[in-house]
Specification:
It is a single chain. The chain is of the alpha+beta class. The protein is built from 10 helices and 6 strands, in the order αββββαααβααβαααα. The strands form 3 sheets. The protein has a two-stranded antiparallel ribbon with strand order 1-2. Strands 3-4 form a two-stranded antiparallel sheet. The radius of gyration is 25 Å and the shape is elongated. It starts with 5 loop residues before the first helix and ends with a helix. About 14% of the residues have low confidence.
């Protein structure tokens, strides 16, 4: 039996067999995983992708409220517009900037976690800013104290039942 060349032994050390499909692929065919010995997952990228599409439940099916809340919040952003410059064309270019009270969480995190009863009060502690003005506020170009009087008002958001039907949420809103 002939000895393996350095190139062949390097190629073997850089290869791995998928535990799902049984194919032997180079390591770049596997997602990284710090917890495994070789630093890569045991399932190849293709099998992992196939699993995620077919078996894993899509997020919007597990949490059907997410797309509705995102639309509602996008409407709030565009209706209100940037507090500083007035921009209101694209909701993705507008951010909520927290200016009042204690922050209970980022609005996007509250939506993703399904904490609907906290979203409305959290929005009422914020002003809407475009990306440029938001950056300028964080660099100190605008006075944050002057923004406090321009927080999103309850009337801008609409009926509380669209966010949550629990009485606990209504108590939080009245106290805000």
């Amino acid at each position: 039996m002939a000895a393996k060349s350095i190139h062949e032994s390097f190629a073997i050390s850089q290869a791995k067999t998928c535990s799902k499909c049984g194919r032997t692929l180079f390591l770049y065919g596997f997602h990284r995983d710090k917890r495994s010995k070789d630093g890569h997952k045991s399932v190849c990228r293709e099998c992992s992708s196939k699993y995620n599409k077919e078996v894993a439940i899509p997020r919007h099916k597990v949490h059907p409220h997410i797309p509705l809340l995102k639309k509602e919040i996008a409407k709030i952003k565009t209706d209100h517009g940037c507090t500083i410059c007035g921009y209101n064309k694209i909701a993705q270019a507008l951010d909520f900037h927290h200016v009042k009270g204690k922050k209970s969480g980022a609005i996007s995190t509250l939506i993703g976690n399904g904490v609907k009863h906290l979203i409305r009060p959290e929005i009422c502690k914020c002003v809407v800013l475009c990306k440029n003005c938001h950056t300028e506020v964080h660099t100190g170009m605008h006075d944050i104290l002057s923004l406090r009087e321009h927080t999103v008002k309850l009337g801008d958001i609409g009926d509380a039942s669209r966010f949550n039907r629990r009485t606990k949420a209504l108590k939080l809103i009245k106290s805000a």
